[in-house]
Write a structure and sequence with these properties.
Two copies of one chain form a homodimer. With 231 residues, chain A is an alpha+beta fold. Chain A is 42% helix and 23% strand. In chain A, the strands form three sheets. In chain A, strands 1-2-8-4 form a four-stranded antiparallel β-sheet. Chain A has a four-stranded antiparallel β-sheet with strand order 3-7-5-6. The N and C termini of chain A lie far apart (41 Å). The N terminus of chain A is likely disordered. The interface between A and B is large, with 40 and 40 residues. The structure holds a DNA duplex (30 and 30 nucleotides).
DNA sequence: CGCGGCTTTGATGTTCATCAAGTAAAGTGG
DNA sequence: CCACTTTACTTGATGAACATCAAAGCCGCG
């Protein structure tokens, strides 16, 4: 977990337009000075379920998973979050403890702001607050949608859906390196590892996808789309 | 669907403190004059999936279901919303068309505000906007939590969970009249009607609950709790 | 090389959906 | 109010989908 807080560089931050869209210079300066920027490797926990909410976290770069462990037993993944997602947006204003863990699944840079500061800014600057509202709306929408979509499908449909999600929404190309284990895929779609593998091999045998380890290439996206919708 | 917009009576509204907490008198007057209050009976559709989002709806009294019909085929229920839930809070600022339908499951009074007005108020009054943020946070939190909870359980666990939800969260007492059909219960927990009935009879035979038609009484809440958690 | 985590395949079992059929309850029109 | 229809509820029998268990191959890493 690298530390990287040399000097206030929010002016050059690529996510500036999103986070700071509605901030005046003075606010920006203040926030920038108190922010903390950390870098995580795959598997490192960014936020732990049950810990108190004190920060407002924002993914600058990388990929994380929102997950929950049910009575210490099996883990289930709720969502894969990309840059520009406010990952703590959900619980942050309604609860005092995190209900989900957030763990990096690739090298990820996260920017932490003091929650109190964001809070007071929202209270003092309506435009900024409204920006937050829109973001929150959009993030919870995405989570609820992906969750409900996945849930109404059978295992084939679920896997087709997830493969398309990685190709279209996350990587924007048909060939990509799957950033998660088969086991995590299983946790994401609520099935067992074995069955995830079985269906992947099946898709591969049918020429719908090509697999080499974590490399996945979608050969027939239309087929996957059909399977995802019919499933 | 009754109409009930005689004069501006928001001052006496029981939900006033929640919706109008951060509004000044002038704003309140303006909003109050343009609001629409409607009454729905069981089964009446309040908001239809796919229709444009123009209003901001608030449940004053009653009970509604958020549901989605997947390619015209089977319907699935996402959430049961109580008074004080901002039912349109989720999609309202991120999308232009509703992704869910909202239907009354008991006699329900809903207050509609013009979305544009709420929007401009949020932009002009930071305290009001912040109130919205908190509400939104809390509603999406509840939905995501109930959804993830249900999903990690087997059928017995799901039914135990839902029965406890009705008893504790919705009615606040162990004996209540189930406001939904067996079929809707099934749609809510993602199972078939037949199996919902089977498990309910089973619980009844085991003396955990008593059933007479829609009347349900929870006899052994601790058992249900255990089943819900272990399931 | 050899160890441990990840992946893969096969055999078996359980859970739940589907199909079928019948009973109860709730509307509906005369 | 009663015959009639429709919708909701219930139970049983069967089958399909998926989980579990077991075992072996793979692959990166000390």
């Amino acid at each position: 977990m690298g530390f990287n807080n040399q000097y206030c560089n929010c002016n050059n931050c690529i996510v500036r337009s999103l986070v700071f869209e509605f901030m005046n210079d003075e606010m920006q300066q203040k926030v920038c000075n108190s922010k903390k920027e950390l870098s995580y490797n795959r598997g490192e926990i960014i936020i732990k379920e049950g810990s108190p909410i004190e920060d407002f976290a924002y993914i600058k770069e990388g990929l994380v998973k929102l997950h929950q462990s049910k009575n210490g037993s099996r883990d289930s993944i709720i969502y894969i979050a990309k840059p520009f997602d406010f990952i703590t947006v959900l619980t942050v204003f309604s609860e005092t403890k995190y209900k989900y863990s957030i763990t990096a699944i690739e090298k990820t840079d996260v920017c932490f702001f003091k929650l109190e500061q964001i809070r007071s800014m929202a209270l003092n600057n309506a435009a900024f607050g409204f920006g937050l509202i829109r973001k929150m709306s959009s993030v919870s929408d995405k989570i609820i949608n992906s969750y409900t979509e996945i849930n109404q499908k059978n295992i084939r449909g679920r896997i087709a859906f997830i493969l398309l999600m990685f190709a279209n929404d996350i990587y924007g190309k048909p060939k990509f390196k799957l950033p998660i284990l088969r086991k995590e895929l299983a946790q994401l779609i609520g099935m067992t590892t074995e069955n995830v593998i079985r269906i992947l091999s099946e898709f591969s045998k049918d020429g719908i996808i090509k697999i080499r380890g974590k490399e996945i290439e979608i050969i027939k996206p239309e087929w996957l789309k059909t399977i995802s919708e019919k499933g």
